[in-house]
Amino acid sequence: LMERKTPVKINRKEVMLAKLRKSCSCTPQKLKNFFMDFFPVLRWLPKYRCKEYIWGDVMSGLVIGIILVPQAIAYSLLAGLKPIYSLYTSFFANIIYFLMGTSRHVSVGIFSLISLMVGQVVDRELLLAGFDLNDDAPPALGDDSLQNDSLSNTTAFNLTIVGINAECGKECYAIGIATALTFMAGVYQVLMGIFRLGFVSMYLSESVLDGFATGASLTILTAQVKYLIGIKIPRSQGHGMFVITWINIFRNISQANLCDVITSAICIVVLVTAKELGDRYKHKLKFPLPTELVVIVVATLVSHYGKLNEVYASSVSGAIPTGFIPPKVPEFNLMFRVAVDALPLAIVSFVFTVSLSEMFAKKYAYTIRANQEMFAVGFCNIIPSFFHSFATSAALAKTLVKTSTGCQTQISGVISAMVVLLVLLFLAPLFYSLQKCVLACIIIVSLRGALRKFRDVPARYHVNKMDTLVWVVTMSASALVSTEIGLLVGIVFSMLCIIVRTQRPRTTLLGQIQDTSFYEDDLEYENLYTVPKVKIFRFEAPLYYANRNYFLKSLYRLTNLDPNLEVARRKKYEKKEKQHLKKGSHRTANGLGIRETTLQLVPKQIDFQVLVVDCSSISFLDTTGVNTLKEILKDYKNLNISVLLACCNPSVIDSLKRGGYFGRDFGCIQEMLFYSIHNAVLFAKDQK
């Protein structure tokens, strides 16, 4: 016989006080460990193997830096901001993650989905403030354009309504919204790290994340089409942006700029061909082809010397100033306007960063600290927000490139930041004539991975239909409604699917595998032996208030016996028999014989005397679950049918004991509870 161990009583008050004393104590060693944990670079940098690691880190850093520059300029279209702010974001994020990150390989910086979420908030606030969302106004010239807002947009808006007592132009207000949003997202992430709320990411399943990424990719693609064909349509805002934008595109398709269309076609062909060749021959290439940079350089030269902006009215990037703007504290009053929007941004940014960090840590056999990752990505948002940057996250594509080019540590991130710094200080003005349609092509081609998820739908459906439904719902909501609503819908729908699964789980009767002590589903397997006079019922879910009725209905249906109805039928039969004996009559009022009338009420022949409930799949019971088992125990007892429980886990047994299922003194527990189905069946046979 197995006996339960006597539980050790824990004084929770003493434990809490001990933890509090430990956490509040301050010693030199503890202070040192705190700084070493908060800045992991202090642990691994002194142990850096220069001869072994430096070449791979430098090479990967240069490649990522070369990729970062065109992507940063391109993603500024998504964020609705000037390219210089994207370059700032890429620079500061790499430096801060180098100091605070625990992953050796992830590339943290500008990311398309995060840029899209920032851009949607920026557009909404610009519209509410009365600005025109048309971003095709003539670009300002000179390095002072960032600070002289009246040059960059003729529309000015007195921001006293939000607490800024200064006249601020469109660009000034846009970056103000973006930095306030980024600061709030970083604050949320740091608070989540302090309170150890990393478990929130568990509610974002793979299907939800994939559906969200695919839906957001469709939104990104839709937003770039107007740049591809060179038409001027208003930037749609709010719910239904996907549909509204496509309607506007088809209405204005006749105004397409032929120069932009031809340029886009050539760039997409070149980029896709280069990507496909790179994927096919990546095992032969030491590092990926810098196709984006080549396309941008060639396109800029052609646009500049061909005067495409002046002759064909092709939209260009405009002036990108050099140097750094003086830091500025994000506007406190603007934070209240974007506080709600910052929450999904913070969660998505953290989830993508941690999931990528864990994936590559597992691949290269080291560990990361998820809580520290939350601090790292939080400060990658908080600190850069003072330097006119917007939200960041880890990106899969750039991380794959880093690992394929020999990255060993985050030294590569510093090298990438130096490449971006070189562009910021000297090379940025050279991109003045770069067409926006070229940037749109780079963005669209970068979405290949997410859009290819559509090809995986049949395989996904074959593996799990419910997960496929979650993917479709999340993707549709993200594309057709909005990205934030899509993420919320995905999480809620995913949780509802789990609830539905537990509300209507699989139920079955078991049969014995001949000449063994094992029992399996008699609907799934052939040649199973049915134990005479014994029914074995399996319920494959926790038993709680939401599935109580389904449990009872399934039990009654599979055993072909509802004890309540059977008891009622027997009482009616006994009542008719008494009436017959009392009257002594052989005919009833309707002309039928008493024997014919009572034949309809004769108790049915019950083909079993013992019901064994297989509890191996019941992970827990709530009060309703315990009462349900007590109810069937009582109801079947009225029909002289024994109910035996088998394969209960310790928590279920404890719930049954506390609920009084085994009586006050547990004296009958050995005749009601068994550690295997076979033991219960043998006991039932012995009792006959």
Automatic annotation (TrEMBL):
Pfam short name (any one): Sulfate_transp
Q: Which InterPro entries match?
A: S04_transporter_CS (IPR018045), SLC26A/SulP_dom (IPR011547), SLC26A/SulP_fam (IPR001902), STAS_dom (IPR002645), STAS_dom_sf (IPR036513)
Gene3D superfamilies given for it? STAS domain (3.30.750.24)
Membrane topology, as annotated, equals: Multi-pass membrane protein
Alphabetically list the UniProt keywords. Cell membrane, Glycoprotein, Membrane, Phosphoprotein, Transmembrane, Transmembrane helix, Transport
Reading the lineage from the top rank, the first entry is Eukaryota
Give a yes or no for keyword ATP-binding in this entry. Answer: no
- SUPFAM superfamilies tied to this protein: SpoIIaa-like
Where found in the cell? Apical cell membrane
Entry GO CC: apical plasma membrane
Q: Which GO terms describe its molecular function?
A: secondary active sulfate transmembrane transporter activity
Residue stretches making up the STAS domain: 524-684
Q: What is its main location?
A: membrane
Transmembrane region(s): 53-75, 95-118, 172-191, 211-229, 334-354, 375-397, 409-427, 471-500
Catalysed reaction(s) here are: oxalate(out) + 2 chloride(in) = oxalate(in) + 2 chloride(out); bromide(in) + chloride(out) = bromide(out) + chloride(in); sulfate(out) + 2 chloride(in) = sulfate(in) + 2 chloride(out); oxalate(in) + sulfate(out) = oxalate(out) + sulfate(in)
Similarity field: Belongs to the SLC26A/SulP transporter (TC 2.A.53) family.
Q: What's the name of the protein?
A: Sulfate transporter
Species name = Ptilonorhynchus violaceus
